[in-house]
Amino acid sequence: MTKKEFLVELSNSLNKNQIADAQSYVADYSELIDDKVDNGQPVAEAIASLGPIEEIVSQIRKAEGIAARPKVIIERKQMRLSTKILLSILLVLGAPLWGPLLGVALVLLVLVYSLLWIAPFIAAVIGTSFIGAGGFGLIASLVAMIKATFAFGLFQLGMSLVLLGGGIFAIMLAWYLSKYFIIATVSLTKWLIKHFKQQKGVDYLA
User: Fold this and answer.
1) Cα–Cα distance for residue pair 139/164, rounded to 1 Å
2) Residue 14: Cβ-neighbour burial (10 angstroms; 0-12, 13-18, 19+)
3) Which among 37, 169, 181, 190 is least surrounded, fewest beta carbons within 10 Å?
């Protein structure tokens, strides 16, 4: 039995027995399995050491009846509290070290996001400039045909059309780059959230 199968079966059994805090118990057992695996115990052996699901549910039902959790859950809660206290102390003592590192990390993060968007921004600026210059050139070329020579006006008209074409191309490039960079930005943000936020105990059921 895999970890996911065990937890799904445990969740179903707890819900079937109308355990009010079912998901919290499931989360505790999920973390307990992870702890055993981190200590070098195989997943199957870690699951087997918890005992049959029927026995676990029966133990939880009895514990609910006396407003207390099973021993294994109590140990897990105590370990979690001790870990939080230790982490809090380390964070306070290590502030002079991790503070600047956090600042550097934030600067790098902003730099990454900026690099993602600098290409479409430049393309949009170039496209806008080319279209503006091309539009002005069209008007100027008509004036040149009348006021100056027809050949000069025709040359200016051609250059204006080239600028307009280049501007339209740059705007389209900026549009497509923005579309793909939005996807890249969302993916990067999701990756950061996934790796830095505290995982909830029910994530394994997704």
Assistant:
1) 13
2) buried
3) 190
Q: How far is CA 140 from CA 19, 154, 164, 168, in A?
A: 81, 10, 14, 20
| CA–CA distance, 161 with 14 (Å, rounded to integer) | 72
Of 181, 179, 167, give the one whose Cα is nearest residue 126: 167
DSSP structure class, residue 200? P
Distances (CA, A) of 5 to 8, 37, 179: 5, 16, 39
Q: Are 30 and 10 in contact (CB under 8 A)?
A: no
Distance CA 146, CA 136 (A): 16
Residues 66-87: pLDDT tens digits? Answer: 444 455 555 555 556 667 777 7
pLDDT digit string, tens, across residues 152-206: 888 888 888 999 999 999 999 888 888 887 887 788 778 777 766 644 444 444 4
